[in-house]
Design a protein that fits this description.
- By secondary structure, this protein is an alpha/beta fold.
- The protein has 13 helices and ten strands.
- The strands form three sheets. The chain has a six-stranded parallel β-sheet, sandwiched between helices. The protein has a two-stranded antiparallel ribbon with strand order 6-7. It has a two-stranded antiparallel ribbon with strand order 9-10.
- Helix 5 (about 155-170) crosses helix 6, helix 8 packs across helix 9 and helix 9 crosses helix 13 (about 335-345).
- The N and C termini lie far apart (about 45 Å).
Length: about 350
Amino acid sequence: MKQNYKPMFFFIDTLKNYTFPDETIFIFDTHTEKLFSQYISSRYIVTIPAGEEHKTISSAILILEYATKNNLTRNVTFCAIGGGLVCDITAFCASIYKRGANLVLVPTTILSMVDAAIGGKTGCNFLEVKNGIGTFYTPKAIIFCFTLLETLPHIEFKNGIAEIIKIGLLKQKKIIDILEKTEPQQFNIVTKHLIDIIKLAIHAKLKIVSKDFTEKNIRALLNFGHTFAHALESISHFAISHGEAVAWGIYQELKLGYTFQITERSYLDYVKKVVTSFGFETSFFHSSARKIFDNEDDFGMQLIEQMKHDKKNKDTRIAVVTQQKLMSNTLLLIEYDKLIELIKKIKGDSLC
C-alpha cells in the first residue's frame, strides 16, 4: 500500500500565532524548555535531556510513560519543540502511542528545519547504532518560525549549513550559487540569505520525499554523506555534531566515487572548496577520531565495522551515495571486503 507524505506547513512569526489542540503534550529538551516554554500554555509538558547521547529508547519511554500515566487518548497531539533529537524522538513516540497519535513538529534549529522535521523519519539510536530504531510517520503539521533561530549558538548555524550543502549538491544548484556568492559569516545570523536557502532546501527535499516516502528508490540519495557520517558519529560516541560528520562524509563519499572513476577530479576539488569555506574538515583521519585512535588504519577498520550496521545496506553490501558532478548522483553498493581496499585508497592525504 502506497503511503503519502502530505503534512500541512505553517510559516509564522511567533508561536503565539498558532493554536494547538487542547489535548496536546509538548516535548522539549533541557535547552529548548528554558528558551521556549513561556510560549506554551499546557498542563502536559515533558522535558528530556539534551544531547545526541540522550537520543535513546530511555528518552522515548520517558515520554510514553508520561502520556500513559496521564491517560492521554489516541487523539492526543504530540508536539516537538526542539532540534533533531526532540523531533525524531517525539515523532517516534507519536507513531507508536496507541498505534498512532497526532504529531506536530516545531523545529528550532536550521538542521532540524531542513532535515529531521522534513520527510517523516522517526527514531532513536540503539546500541551505538545511529537511528537503529524508528518508523516512517507523517506529521499533521510542521511549523516554521525563523525567529526561533535567533537563539542558536554559532555551531548550530554551521551544523545546518552542512545539510543545506548536501541538498544543494544533490538537487538544487541555486543553493550552491547563493553559498558561493555570499560571505560565510552571513550564514551565522538570521538573514534573508539564510532564510532563502532554508526554504530552497525544504522544497528540494519535499520533492524527493513526495515521490518515495519509505525510501525504496530515489529517496536513498538523501543519504549522501551519511554512510560515513553515521559511522563516525557512532564511533565517537556522538561527540561530533551531525553537521560536522555529514560535511566530512560528503567528501569521503566523493573520494570513493573518484576511485570508481565516477567523480570528476575537478568536481572533487570544487566540493572541497565549498565544504572547507565553512570550516569543515575533509581529512580522512578526522580530528574527532584522532582522540580515540592512534592511527588511521585502526580508525578505517572500525569505520567499516560500524558501517555494517547501517540500515541502508543490502545483504553484505554497503550503500554509499556519490556523484559524477553537481546534481549527477549515483548509488553504489560495495561489498565489505572491497570497501576495505577502497578505504586504503582514500585515507591519507593523497586525495585531500
